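A favour, since you know our structure tokens better than I do. Would you make up a two-line entry for one protein for me to read? Write everything out right here, beneath this request.
=====
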Amino acid sequence: MTNQYPIGKYEPKPYSEKQKEEWLLDIKFLPEELERAILNLDKGQLDTPYRDGGWTVQEVVHHVADSHMNAYCRFKLGLTEDNPVIKPYLENEWTKLYDVNALPVNISITLLHALHLRLYTAIKDLRNDQWERKVFHPESKREMSLWFLLGLYAWHGKHHTAHITTLREIKKW
């Protein structure tokens, strides 16, 4: 484990009911976990990067909201279209946009609470064959199943939450 990957890199796993339930709970409870991770942080702490050359805590929180908005759209596209091409985005460029530093993190936390309720509700009762539906990512030139995306976004939320909790431990905040 490194400061860049405090929980390791995403490792896809084969389908199982147990794994599905675990990842669905990760999706359901991410907003609460991320909110707890930033609880009582002041402006200086929010402006601290989680590693040298990394994003600040504030940027990480807004990034998770941006990323998971894309995730929601990717799931919806995958459920309603046959192998749709999904839109990549330049996440580093998104963190440089004005809203990321102008708006407090609670805006993205509030957004994540609503977004994850929608996402969780949309996917919690999918049939096994629906998890096999695919989207195509043109940047990586690969098809990804909705099962793969479930694991990826469950990991992604935990990954960025760990950036913040690890930083808190190191800094003794």
